[in-house]
Amino acid sequence: MGPEVVLSWLISHLLKQCSFLIQSEISTIYNSTGDLHKLKSLLTTILSVLSDAERKQLQNSAINTWLSEIRDVAYDAQDVLDEFQFEILTRTVLRRNSSWASEMVRRLFTSRNPILFKRKMGRSVKQIVNRFDEKAVQKSWFDLVSSDNLGEVYKVQSQTSSFVEQSDVIGRDKDRDFIIEILISEKCTRNDVSVLPIIGMGGIGKTTLAQLVFNDNRVETLFEIRIWVSVGDDFDVMKICRSILESVTQKECLLSQLDLFQRKIREALQGKRCLLVLDDVWNEDRLQWEGFRSVFTSVARGSVILVTTRIIEVGSVAETVGTYQLAPLSEHDCWVIFKRRAFRTFGEEEPQNLVLVGKEIVRKCSGLPLACKALGGLMGTKQDVRDWMTVLLSEIWDLQNDPVLPSLRISYYHLPTHLKRCFAFCAIFPKGYQMNKYMLIHLWMANGFLPEMGKFDLEEIGRNIFDELVCRSFFQVVNKIEKWYDGEVMVSFRMHDLMVDLARWVSLEECHYLGEDGWVPDLKIRHLGVNLYSDLAHINSFSHIRKLRSFVLMNHSKNQISHHLMNALCMCKCLRALDLSRSIPPNNDIPLHHLKHLRYLNLSYTNIGTVPESVCHLLYLQTLNLNHCEALSELPKDMKNLMNLRHLYLTGCINLRKMPVKMGQLRQLRTLTKFVVCSESFSSTLSELRDLKLEGILHLGNLQNLKSVADAEANLNLKENIEGLNLEWVIDEEDILEVNEELLEALKPPKTLKMLGMKGYCGKLLPKWLLDNWTFFRNLTELSLSCWARVEFLPCFGELPSLKVLEIHEMEKVKKIGDEDRVSRGSFPSLRYLKLTKMANLVELVGLDKRPGMAEPFKLKIKNCPRLTTIPVIQTVQEVEIENCSNIDPYEGFISCMICLEKLVLSECDRVVLLLEQEKGESNMPVKELIIKRCTKQMFNKSPQFGLWRCFVSLSYLSFESCDGLIFLPDIVIKQLQFLKCLIIFYCLNLIGSSENDGLQLQYLPSLEKLSITECNKLLDFPENAMRHLSSLKIIELIGLREISRIPELPTSLTNAVISGCTKIYSLPDNMYQIKSLARLQIMDLPNLISLPEEMLCLTGLELVVINCRNLEKKEMIRPKKKNRWHDVSHAGLTSHHLWQMATEG
């Protein structure tokens, strides 16, 4: 990041450090008080002119150089002052541990000799003062003006107009029509003035869409007056009013008072229906918006203000009829935009050797039309495929005069300073990399990027910054996973490639990602992301490696760290953040003793068995991530010294057996994902957590080792910021452990808890706080209970008002869930997912039928409950999966009453399967997916009407797997499946066809797209016309059909076909040559196949794979044309090398 991003923050931070040190005893001890006062004065002087310097640097490169030099001095000063504060922390730890005297004596004979340290620090402070003094003198060279505030960074702002060349716009017709429909809808016509924001990231086409709407004939007819105003980041009401009035009157306006402007506008618009487009709005101030809208009180009903903006908050502040989120263009539309410019000199011809490379370039644009235009224009000047490959492989995006990056730069310049530095830091990540939200916040925190804001924790400030960058489209959230039962919460996100380019551009001198080429620019890089596969042989020669503050390894699989890299790390004594996750250090040795400035250490997914004791000397350490270090058995014994530690991640440390003593001294600790109770001495008891302000997810393991209530008193019920709690007992089967009720009471969670898990609980009765006090858990959304060896009864938990997920697993003695006396109508009002598995003695399930009628649909999964006999009739279920529940005897109407059912999976539960044809259905059911597995009783046998099968008209996916009871699939059933897209029949050994004498009557499936039939040994030949007219069929797989002797004519829509193990087949269908769309034909294990249709020679795009067809004449395998691929071809991922080869061959 440039000096303008970090300097004001750095110097402000240094001033705070100076003030703190001046007031501490350390400055007196080391005789540094005078120098610190002078340093503080110099910093104040420089800070006062920063605002003016940052403005003038755009016109004067010498000022930019001066700012860069000051930044370098400031970084060095921060390291020196950190050393002072580290000495204060060290003395605090020594006093607390009562080892002050002995340690001070020991230090006399080490490099930390206080006399030598005093001389060293005195010299360092004087050097810093002299360097700042020199820079303070130089400010007079530039005529810089002092200021009490930092002011605003100068921003370049572009103007837009309402004009658009409609023939140049691709892919926005549906968006245009949708917005116009809103404009003429009742929602707009019933209001005097409606506001509709169009929201999207820079370069996505918001302005273009607004121009299309503005110039549409329907809009011209609808609105008497149409006005276009380009606003920009300065929401100047006077300026906007001037533009509106001049647009309406077509005259220059010389008024100077806002009130006069507004009166004139009201007069000009009186009684007229108006459309006002405000393009590129940034203002989030609701009061300003309300004041601006008051200008339009005189317009006719149905008038609209159409706003384009990149910021979601602007939309929420301004909108009155909803917002429109503009999506990226499709790859096809992007390709059309790109090729118009790239191939403009080729006429109608598209050079095929360039098309393949061009489509890969377009894919990098990720749906941004501006990027496609810019790159298409660039490639239009290049006709050699080598030049195209150079652009593709070099990823050259920050082109001069490129219209995309300037639009993104405006977004960046508009950010507050603290957002700028947080965004710019992300340049250390490669393109396409998915980052973890919480780890990024910890990295920001380690580098001091998060501003202090009163009573707010740094973590909360970091979350707010992240969310704001998401709202402004700088980040894109990819996935949110809350595996709370593993103690893991992850929100992954990525940056659009153009945003990565922007981050790299603004942070060129500060942040760098070291790719596989191993190239590091000769700049003063402070933050470095490294690909483990990089060529690191010369990294030690990187001149500024000693100044690195962040070193983050990008690695997706456990690989050995090279000695080059470890040697380099030994030189990085200024590091604040070190991430070696998913790596294997040489000899599992990680040099940490010299990293006294370190705040963030990530060793997750490594093979370390022990954490080096030297980690306990890292007194600044804030975050220690040891997630999934499966070999880790214990933590360093002196971890109590880490007085600044805020986050300790231990999820997945399955062999961790105890916690170090005095964990309660870690008073700053906020995150502790796992705590293991140990009965051995020299380990912490649970009571050490009593005074810690923990938050997030907490897993308490080996609770069977709790021996007394005093040891269990952790004040869990008072820790209201804990969202997820997992309690785990580990008991051998032969052991019997009586659980003390008072001890259980000590484990009572906070009433604000959202997620609770209890595994291995060994008591006979439920804890009172779980059984009785339902109002206590009003916020509980997820409950997981597993491996309870002695409990015989469970309540239905239906009284928990917020419960969304209920999972009960492996409770061998539980016979009943729910109590009729306690269940009331309105149970499970919020339930979304219920899972019951491995309940060997469960007989009855009570309460689900009492859900409110208006409750949201939920998913039900019951697996391996062999004694379960009844399931309540449930209306509001969306997905049902029942497996290995052979004794279920469902009520009449069990399935037909499921009015929301979309997916049904039945495995090893014959009675429920047969119910499908026994129940009467009076109306169509919404079922879209039906999967039946391992049904042994004969299906489609009792009722000629076939019950509910006649109601499955919406079915799109049907699968039978290992169903010995499937003998016939009647045509009357098939005829109902008009919308079926996929039919899978797998290992149904007794299937004959649609009747005793007919094969499957597939001709009644007009929507079928995929047909797969495997290992149905008795299946008869298909009727001749079974497939010919299936015009939607694209994929067919016929495998192991040993009784069929011929394949019927196939539809011309087919793209992929597999015919294998059909031993009686001697020829392929005669109409194969007509299937022009056929891309791949795979024939295997057809011993009687003797020839292929001669006409197949015309299928020039066909890839033919032939395996083990011994009687097929060799002449049939002659490759007839260059474009045919009549052999076995295996395609790896399309790499740059493949693109080059295919392009040059073309």
From TrEMBL:
Any GO BP annotation: innate immune response-activating signaling pathway
Official protein name in the record: CC-NBS-LRR disease resistance protein
Sorted UniProt keywords: ATP-binding, Leucine-rich repeat, Nucleotide-binding, Plant defense, Repeat
Record-linked Gene3D superfamilies: 1.20.5.4130, Helical domain of apoptotic protease-activating factors, P-loop containing nucleotide triphosphate hydrolases, Ribonuclease Inhibitor, Winged helix-like DNA-binding domain superfamily/Winged helix DNA-binding domain
Domain spans labelled Disease resistance protein winged helix: 428-503
Coiled coil: none
GO molecular function, one term: ATP binding
Pfam families documented for this protein: LRR_14, NB-ARC, Rx_N, WHD_DRP
Domain of life the protein comes from: Eukaryota
Domain Disease resistance R13L4/SHOC-2-like LRR as annotated: residue spans: 547-838
InterPro entries, alphabetized: Apaf_helical (IPR042197), LRR_dom_sf (IPR032675), LRR_R13L4/SHOC2-like (IPR055414), NB-ARC (IPR002182), P-loop_NTPase (IPR027417), Rx_N (IPR041118), WH-like_DNA-bd_sf (IPR036388), WHD_DRP (IPR058922)
Organism field: Rhynchospora pubera
Family: Belongs to the disease resistance NB-LRR family.
Ranges where the Disease resistance N-terminal domain occurs: 11-95
PANTHER family hit by this protein: DISEASE RESISTANCE PROTEIN RGA3 (PTHR36766:SF40), PLANT BROAD-SPECTRUM MILDEW RESISTANCE PROTEIN RPW8 (PTHR36766)
Keyword Repeat part of the UniProt annotation: yes
Domain NB-ARC: 189-344
